[in-house]
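Posted in: Structural Biology > Protein-Ligand Complexes

Title: Requesting predicted complex, heme C in pocket

I'd be grateful if someone could produce the 3D structure tokens for the following input. Sequence and ligand are given below.
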Amino acid sequence: MRSRRHHRRRFSAVARVLALVPLAGLLLCGLASGAHAGALPQGESLFDAHCASCHGYDLRGRRGVAPSLIGVGAGPVKFYLSTGRMPLANPQDEPVRETPIFDPSQIRSVAAYVRAIGGGPIAPTADPAAGSLSLGFKLFDENCAGCHSIVGRGGIAINAQVPDLGQATADEVAEAIRMGPYVMPHFSTAQLDQHDLNSIARYVLWTRHPDNAGGVGIYNIGPIPEGIVAWFVGLFALVIVARLIGERLA
Ligand code: HEC
Ligand code: HEC
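-- Reply #1 --
Done. Output follows.
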């Protein structure tokens, strides 16, 4: 019968393939480090073309023009580029959210380049699925709502335009929390740990599509409430929703 031999042949084929695995591993490692080596020249040429005029070819900044990027790490670079805040057109402009000029892989390569030359931490990330919505609501209320308003709609400014959080991704939330862009304070891991970050990101994303149990209407209010009465009614409704969620998730 052919099946036995067939099996044995197949077995030896498998063994041969297995024997090749370490070799393939070596090859892949080589490729990966090749790819890594490719990211840095790309990062460098993008940096030199779009950032160096203000931040300097050596990343040390230029007095009165732009700050040094030595030691800032990957987080602030990713944040500024993925939210389109950099490159600024004019050093006097306040950075605001705009369409990014780079795609995600270009952003990663510029961040890798800045970190390779200037040092500093890797970029923080957030995993909303691993966070708790009720904890996120509580932490956002305590640490962020004073500026961004409880529904993340931005608004009242303290010498600065506080942005609506309707577009920020989970990672951008984490990056903003760790770096504190412009007048926003930054929060260390002792103040807000990774679980807190995940939870806040989850809450920020949730504010865009809350379950409608009682929260109806609040979304029409906009950044500056048309009527303070409507505002309080909405806020009250949100607190009820939050409590319901809190009980469900607790
Ligand atoms: C026209 C000048 C200009 C250009 C071009 C520019 N920047 Fe900036 N950059 C600034 C200024 C001014 C600030 C400080 C902004 C502030 O005070 O909020 C800044 C801040 C930053 C920060 C925050 C630094 C910190 O200490 O937190 C990062 C990161 C950054 N820029 C990255 C870049 C990258 C990457 C590019 C190129 C894609 C770039 N910038 C292009 C002027 C510029
Ligand atoms: C003192 C006021 C203040 C507090 C408190 C504050 N922020 Fe901010 N936040 C700002 C300002 C101002 C900006 C815009 C900075 C800039 O344009 O460079 C900002 C920007 C952001 C952004 C970027 C939004 C975008 O779409 O580009 C995120 C995300 C963010 N904040 C999240 C938070 C979270 C989460 C907290 C609480 C842990 C918080 N902020 C606390 C003032 C504040």
